[in-house]
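2024-03-11 09:14:02 INFO receiving multi-entity request
2024-03-11 09:14:02 INFO entity count = three
2024-03-11 09:14:03 INFO echoing inputs for audit
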Amino acid sequence: MEFQSYEANNTNITSTTVLYVGSLYKLSQEDSSWIVSNAFIIFTMQTGFGMLESGCVSLKNEVNIMMKNVVDIVLGGLTYWLFGFGVSFGREEPTNSFIGVGGYLIDPEIDDELFGPISAAFLFQLSFATTSTTIVSGAMAERCNFKAYCLFSLLNTIVYCMPAGWVWGDHGFLRNMGAVDIAGSGTVHLVGGVSALACALMLGPRLGRYDEGIDALPLGCPVNALMGLFVLWWGWLAFNSGSTYGVSGMRWKYAARAAVSTMLASMGGGLVGLGFSLANPKRIDILSQINGILGSLVAVTGGCFLYKAWESILIGMIGGFMTCFTMPLLDKMGVDDPVGASATHGISGFWGVMAIGFFADDPHPLNTTSGRKGLFKGGGWYLLGVQLLTGVCLSVWSFTSSVILLWIIDKIIPIRMDEHEELLGADLVEHRIHHSQIGVSRALSALHPLPSKKQSLNGVPSIGTNPGHDSFILKVIRVKRLNNGLKIFHRRPLIRMENTFEEKLQIPTINSSNSDSLKLAWTN
Amino acid sequence: MEFQSYEANNTNITSTTVLYVGSLYKLSQEDSSWIVSNAFIIFTMQTGFGMLESGCVSLKNEVNIMMKNVVDIVLGGLTYWLFGFGVSFGREEPTNSFIGVGGYLIDPEIDDELFGPISAAFLFQLSFATTSTTIVSGAMAERCNFKAYCLFSLLNTIVYCMPAGWVWGDHGFLRNMGAVDIAGSGTVHLVGGVSALACALMLGPRLGRYDEGIDALPLGCPVNALMGLFVLWWGWLAFNSGSTYGVSGMRWKYAARAAVSTMLASMGGGLVGLGFSLANPKRIDILSQINGILGSLVAVTGGCFLYKAWESILIGMIGGFMTCFTMPLLDKMGVDDPVGASATHGISGFWGVMAIGFFADDPHPLNTTSGRKGLFKGGGWYLLGVQLLTGVCLSVWSFTSSVILLWIIDKIIPIRMDEHEELLGADLVEHRIHHSQIGVSRALSALHPLPSKKQSLNGVPSIGTNPGHDSFILKVIRVKRLNNGLKIFHRRPLIRMENTFEEKLQIPTINSSNSDSLKLAWTN
Amino acid sequence: MEFQSYEANNTNITSTTVLYVGSLYKLSQEDSSWIVSNAFIIFTMQTGFGMLESGCVSLKNEVNIMMKNVVDIVLGGLTYWLFGFGVSFGREEPTNSFIGVGGYLIDPEIDDELFGPISAAFLFQLSFATTSTTIVSGAMAERCNFKAYCLFSLLNTIVYCMPAGWVWGDHGFLRNMGAVDIAGSGTVHLVGGVSALACALMLGPRLGRYDEGIDALPLGCPVNALMGLFVLWWGWLAFNSGSTYGVSGMRWKYAARAAVSTMLASMGGGLVGLGFSLANPKRIDILSQINGILGSLVAVTGGCFLYKAWESILIGMIGGFMTCFTMPLLDKMGVDDPVGASATHGISGFWGVMAIGFFADDPHPLNTTSGRKGLFKGGGWYLLGVQLLTGVCLSVWSFTSSVILLWIIDKIIPIRMDEHEELLGADLVEHRIHHSQIGVSRALSALHPLPSKKQSLNGVPSIGTNPGHDSFILKVIRVKRLNNGLKIFHRRPLIRMENTFEEKLQIPTINSSNSDSLKLAWTN
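2024-03-11 09:21:47 INFO inference complete, emitting structure
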């Protein structure tokens, strides 16, 4: 994020008092409106991730993964308020290069001069934190226990907030070395993607995943997956453009450039994804197209307003290529990541961090790069080195911390679902949602003697049906068979309808003198 | 809404002439941009309500309820323009404490000094009005006649615009007593929720609703319901944050705070909803999770920028608790509200109005609370009393007016669907949309001799199929059986394709000398 | 778009240097923030078009049409960057009245004084270009070859960027004659709609389309179609309101008016669509309701801030009427446009262009209409004449160029799918997505001996299923039948679960001494 140390000595900022206490809180009215509006849009990315992940898994888990995305905000958001924001941006003693202290349970008084900027800053950071933590959910889909996931959601904030502080906090050692990561190719995506990889490894592949080779399993609802892509795509514009952290001074110009770069990169990545799709001898692959675009967006995120147009396209193409190339590779290595989060966010996120070291302009008068430039812009090797260090530190941290976290959680609640629960699907087992026509009923009967949950799952009605109506209609059918009118009792609406169902049905019984003709009418 | 009487005596408003005629129209360029942008987002809440409601009902009514949401904007919007805005905010004689007069068919001349602010104000109010009126549709789902609903949509504006004037209009008696309801816990949600309760009571429960106990019926499409939750969630940010009614002066700071409070409250409510879900012995309940979050959002709406962080969380938790606790209670009382709108918006809306009386800060220099504070902030009992009065007035008005309205409409068009139409589902009966695999065909055959509509419903093709192709393929199958080539006629595209289907199929007939091998090929 | 020649001589623009080089780049910080934010929202219209089109086609093509919408942005966006923007807005020699030159591969240096405005302008124009080109995809649904469509996507930019230059470019002959088309009733919708008509004619109707009369085929997923309507509806607010091209000066007032006009027009069109729906003797027609609203939005787009409130409603009603009236007419003429794009965007777009000639105000101090007024406002016939000329030029251009383009593409890759591919559906043939329960399997078996693609399509698993699990469960069933325990091998998760599936299953085999009771247990 671009809140480093831009000197507000230009005359454009006329209508506000610029605040100097902590670069995070240097926000004028226009800046605050900009980041607050963009935070609104960034939150919609949760919808995008939810729909994408839900569309990618098999139907018997589509609801469960959406619920996990809900829980990510509720629990992840709470812990970010409790300690995450403080760890990333706290400024009290004994804050050091590795961890911020203070700012927990942040709650500025309205008499505080900084109360507006603090609120806006927290909102913006919260939108980033929830986005980062939800990246992992896709990699854990279809086999992670819901309660264990809740625990993970609570604690996942730790994985994110530490490196965010290193790169964005005033105290951070990477920031102070000159690391650049504007909208978080590293802090958000690399961290999320590597954490996803760790989780996918810890959980192991889904049952029978590689029985038929490494081809991707069929998407449960490709339309929803593509809709998720679209929502993420537009959300990304706010994600990157909002990361100028305002519009005052020259920032509005870079905000516009960030949006253009984001679109151009996605076109580059989309082109590569389309190439992968069309090159596939078997099919025009949806997931390659989706992840090609997402991978390019991840790649351009870190230096979104530091690139020329053709560089954005190139960076996007490389990001898309690395994503599409790595996805099947991970499958070959037996790492089962149902939505490809490790490749999309991890591999391409690392590239996004490095790309800054190669291509970054110095966006004067902003101090984003501390006046440095990338290797290809004549800036020498320093920035590239720092970016490499950043990528390595973030990867090591997020892998290690995720493994430790999951290991601990597994001791409390086993993270992997019981195998028969996995076969029945989390929607049925956890939420009693019975999808019909996709083999759940067969699984139920095949696994019948196994002790699943206390309650029986056989009686769960199919999704979309109305059991009340069903029993009602069965009664009608029975009545027809008995050919003796219909006796039904149900609660009456307050307003009595003149011509009720029963009366209509009883009319023939009462009026007809010829029971045979009636019989005929019923059975017709 | 916060357009009361904020004194624009600070130096931040440099670029506009602040207008003093009517507090509603005191809008600078920045303020107008803020509320117009936020109105755009608030309109997306209609998408959220549509998806949530459509996902909650059984499949055979999922389209019908979406159509009702469309009609809400079309007809409700028209009447809001015709008279609703005038009743709420009119200032002409004989405007009194209970009703505004004038401002009907609002249409400012471009030479009018206020033409910009009036346009912006109307747009913002319109987005609120359509949101409020659509809350009711969920409670009427699956059994309300479509045409009667259209009539209700037209007139429902009355239920909303009167109390909105009481609380927000310059003339309103509640406003002049000091009632506070920033983004409408009362005027939007309590009114909508109580109206929903009235409608659910008037319509009576769905057929067979309580045959198997009070457990919720299965959701028709839980993924859509959860997507609706997400859309509403983010829309709510604009709803509350936009209700600072601008960003000039100190407003931008409170706008940021409103967004933070909204997120924090939703986390509190989400936690409670998750608790209810996990505590349910049978399942992790989707609807409790959804309505826990929505209930907390409703609760924080009224005083969205008056609370400290932990208070927002607490208010959200209480709102979520009241919602999740009341939902099954209403079912026990035989009130069938398919999406839980009465509990979510009504009960939690009342709590939201009261919470202001307990917790409100005085957000100086804004005049939102007229300098008053809530009970727990040392403001004494006055504000709490006014808020209680507001809650009672709004509840009584919306219940009574809804009952009268529906009673009148029922005299014109019966509001409840015929029972056999309800059993077949509104999608089939009203829209000829035939969902397969959910028992509609069985219902059709069971109810066969009943006079449903003029036209037959038996021939309606299943959703998602292509009847043109089906007949085409049946012809192919017939042709195969006859083993004598294929005669098909269909319209030609302008560009003749070189190698058509017929030719390919005819090749074996023409070239093959051995009819037996051909026969084999066909039957393979 | 309203970037003509507004004189920035008012004092409101305090915080920026207003730039005079090219009216397209006269953007202050506020203006840029406005159009950049609105561009974000306009891009969401792609989601709307995708969901609408995907919901309108039969299920066996629902994914394919979404993919085409993805490709529209990727390829259409790339060519817009490569040459489209330059053709519309280039200013170098030899730019003439018909075509702009220069500005290709646009990429402003950060030292360029105009670098911010150019970035913002390009982003905004890009959002318009991708919207226009995607209109066509709906008309080509269900029968257009995917690879041919990719080629079309690449080149379709030509169809859009030429007339956009005529009406909006500084060089454009229509602009210099005084043509008015604020947000593109003509340049976006008429062009898109007429192009859609040309494409529908070139492709010919879907197989068997008119076998059962001209009634619309069943929508594949009406809920998605309605969701698409909603997304488009709100996106349109940004589309029209953003086309003030800023908020500085008086623009913010007209931006607010544009949004109000847009909503009012949509209510008018929605009312007409509802009338058509209710008047239909067979059903309350979803597509009439949708296209009535969209048609009215198209109609109001061109003069969105030039109308009084009741005029907006009237223009919307006429637009909605023309759309709903023309849709079945086109079907009678054998033009098969699955989503009605020709009527909605073409016919209503033409009306939108003409409506300006009848109703336009002179929105002083903006120079939108060059001081002219519509016929009914006392402006005489001139503006009406120019608008008529605009409508005719745009129609002729887009029809001719689309036909030529498709004709050329058809020589390279046949644009129409093979007939057996069309019968199987593009989802299966192109993407190997097998929708169950909609007749695809029957089609597969009926068309079996035909040479479809290299690979067999019979083995493709049904959408939403998990083939890995299926084979796993089949093994369980087989094991049960053999009654000799269970031997399964699968990859282990890294963390060994204490109590695995196999062990549980093996317990009876090992411990039980009575094989009969075990047998019983298995078969239970």
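2024-03-11 09:21:48 INFO post-check: The mean pLDDT of chain A is 86.
2024-03-11 09:21:48 INFO post-check: Residues 382-412 of chain A form the longest helix (31 residues).
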